[in-house]
TrEMBL record:
Name this protein carries in UniProt: Ribosomal RNA small subunit methyltransferase E
Functional note: Specifically methylates the N3 position of the uracil ring of uridine 1498 (m3U1498) in 16S rRNA. Acts on the fully assembled 30S ribosomal subunit.
Gene3D superfamilies linked to this entry: 3.40.1280.10
Organism encoding this protein: Helicobacter valdiviensis
Enzyme Commission identifier(s): 2.1.1.193
InterPro entries listed in its UniProt record: Alpha/beta_knot_MTases, RsmE, RsmE_MTase_dom, tRNA_m1G_MTases_N
């Protein structure tokens, strides 16, 4: 664990409770003599706290120092991802977070099941846990758009990952669109026919989440 995330990091006295308390003082058995590194994911400061008291349900920390740590690797990759089963998205998120993806724009494709809904509270917990492990301290942006048409209206310039295109390679700065399971409908292909198309050369047929991770790893 690289640091702890707490929304109030930076205050002189910080109380740790709930799931974070359980993780630190029940699971990891953090001792009172330990100092903790804490971030809030809102600024670039790394806050050092000493543990003053450990109670049965909460712990009290005192701020020792604050260090400004500007990021050396700003996130840049923008993925446009057709909605798939949420549990598969959740499994892929830690990897995408580690690969420094900047933003994921989800949209409902014609082959997306419309009853699929993302649990944002759960997603942010997954991303926070990933950040604490991999050391990322810039939030991964997530948005949901109604359909392909709305996505095209918002983003004018993007590429598409599909069969028959040029090889996807490093250095591409375009947002990349990845379809849902089953690919694109004929109507969607008509909308996307003028877009630059890229392919995963030397790969077999990829699941949607595999295609997203493949894209993120190349464009990182």
């Amino acid at each position: 664990m690289q640091f702890v995330i707490h929304k109030n990091a930076g205050v002189s006295t910080l109380n740790i409770e709930g799931e974070l308390y359980t993780h630190l003082f029940k699971s990891r058995r953090t001792r009172q003599s330990t100092t903790l590194l804490v971030r809030n994911l809102e600024d670039f400061n790394l806050y050092t706290y000493e543990i003053l008291e450990i109670h049965k349900k909460y712990a009290t920390l005192n701020l020792v120092s604050s260090t400004l740590t500007p990021p050396s690797n700003l996130p840049k990759t923008h993925l446009i991802w057709a909605m798939i089963e949420p549990k598969n998205i959740e499994k892929a998120l830690p990897t995408l977070n580690e690969l420094n993806v900047k933003k994921i724009s989800f949209f409902y494709a014609e082959y997306s099941q419309k009853n699929f809904k993302l649990d944002f509270e759960r997603i942010y917990r997954i991303l926070e846990s990933s950040c604490m492990q991999c050391g990322r301290f810039i939030k991964l942006e997530i948005e949901i758009l109604k359909d392909l048409q709305e996505m095209c209206e918002k983003y004018q310039d993007f590429g598409v990952l599909d069969f028959g295109g040029e090889a996807l390679r490093q250095g591409i700065s375009l947002p990349i669109l990845i379809g849902s399971e089953g690919g694109f409908s004929q109507k969607e292909r008509e909308i996307l026919k003028t877009r630059q198309t890229f392919s995963a050369k030397n790969c077999n047929i990829l699941r949607s989440e595999s295609a997203v991770i493949y894209t993120a790893s190349l464009l990182a």
